[in-house]
TrEMBL record:
Cofactor or coenzyme needed: FMN
EC number: 1.1.3.15
GO cellular component, one term: peroxisome
Classification of source organism: Eukaryota, Metazoa, Chordata, Craniata, Vertebrata
Organism, scientific name: Eptatretus burgeri (Inshore hagfish)
Protein's name according to its UniProt entry: (S)-2-hydroxy-acid oxidase
Positions annotated to bind glyoxylate: Y46, R159, H251, R254
Keyword Aminoacyl-tRNA synthetase attached: no
Length: 357
């Protein structure tokens, strides 16, 4: 069921082609290692970094080790389906692509390549949308089937590598959905902030509040998903404001360092909404068994951020496809080993919390 993937010649730098062309990539960590070899350091650091001391970045990964699987046997797993429904749409896999900016730094085809890979793999891709009526209307016209409102970014987190690297976006990149696009290249770094962080600070709205969710609900009939909720209290508010889904996320640990890992936050959010709306998760997902654990704790779908960027850097659209297929194969195998033939059969009793970590 699982597959090994041969890396194709990389997009960046001819020297890598010689040394790396025959490397076999067996798991998502291999893709990250390979991307690190290919990408300019400033770009790799921008993608990889978490905020401040990166406690939460480490914990997003470690949280998956705190749960162990309790497999059931003798269940005829000759056929396993990883298919799920998300907001009424049938997906081949519960693994989908999250919103991460600037795919063009990883590969010239950028977001287009990632979106094509999603389509080919039968899953969906999230695009970041500013909550303005104009953008909403454009999304509606373009046939988008849901809006995602990121709610954990009143300010931008401090990613120390970006400060150290004095990170600036390559001059050919544009923020096509924003009018003030050009200012992004007019901001210089300071002692404490990268130029990029300064630009983002200028464009964010720290007064974003529940009334904006109410407003958004009133101007569109598209399903709304709030991205960045970590507590039962906010999950209940979200239900009260009529949203259709919650993405339990800490922004890939790039905002408030020290917040709890998303896997640790998931059970209380799932309990608080008690089936009234859909709940998804992102952050630190590296393996099929991670996806399995998140589903067992009540997530309906799982989004991945950085692994997509690593796939894109390694091999463009095909690299993203390989990442998605690898995770799906790993999930399928883990389901079979656990005695789960369908995603519905993945239930909380599949897990036990370890006491030895
Ligand atoms: C390079 C990068 C850029 C991101 N840009 C955005 C963004 O523009 N909007 C947003 O809501 N989340 C953004 N995120 C957060 C992701 O949507 C997602 O929450 C996170 O990457 C999931 O964690 P993972 O990378 O461990 O899979 C970004 C994450 C990364 C790594």
């Amino acid at each position: 069921m699982s597959r090994c993937i041969k890396a194709l010649p990389p997009f960046y730098g001819p020297c890598h082609e010689l040394t790396m062309a025959s490397q076999v990539l067996t798991c998502l960590e291999d893709f990250e290692k390979r991307a690190k070899e290919i990408l300019p350091k400033t770009v790799f650091d921008y993608y990889r970094s978490g905020a401040d001391g990166e406690q939460t970045l480490r914990d997003n990964l470690a949280a998956y080790s705190r749960w162990r699987l309790r497999p059931r046997v003798l269940r005829d797993v000759s056929k396993v389906s990883t298919s799920v429904q998300v907001l009424g749409a049938q997906l081949v896999s519960p693994v989908a692509v999250g919103a991460t900016g600037f795919h063009c730094m990883a590969h010239p085809e950028g977001e287009l390549a990632s979106a094509r890979a999603c389509a080919a793999s039968g899953t969906l891709m999230m695009q970041d949308q500013d909550a303005t009526e104009q953008l909403v209307r454009r999304a509606e016209r373009a046939g988008y089937t849901a809006l995602v409102l990121t709610v954990d970014t009143p300010y931008v987190g401090r990613r120390l590598d970006d400060v150290r690297n004095r990170f600036v976006l390559p001059s050919h990149l544009r923020l096509c959905n924003f009018k003030e696009d050009d200012t992004i290249h007019g901001v210089g770094p300071t002692q404490n902030d990268s130029a990029f962080a300064l630009f983002v600070k200028q464009s964010l709205n720290p007064s974003l509040a529940w009334e904006h969710v109410h407003w958004l609900r009133s101007i569109t009939s598209l399903p709304i998903i709030l991205k960045g909720i970590l507590t039962a209290e906010d999950a209940r508010e979200a239900v009260n404001y009529g949203v259709d889904g919650i993405l339990v996320s800490n922004h890939g640990a790039r905002q408030l360092d020290g917040v709890l890992s998303t896997l640790d936050a998931l059970p209380e959010v799932v309990a608080a909404v008690s089936g009234r709306i859909e709940v998804y998760i992102d952050g630190g997902v590296q393996r099929g068994t991670d996806v399995l654990k998140a589903l067992a704790l009540g997530a309906q779908a799982v989004f991945i951020g950085r692994p997509v960027l690593w796939g894109l850097a390694v091999n463009g659209e095909n690299g993203v496809r390989q990442v998605l297929e690898l995770l799906q194969d790993e999930l399928s195998l883990a389901m079979a080993f656990s005695g789960c033939r369908t995603v519905k059969e993945i239930t909380p009793d599949l897990l036990t919390r370890t006491s030895y970590l």
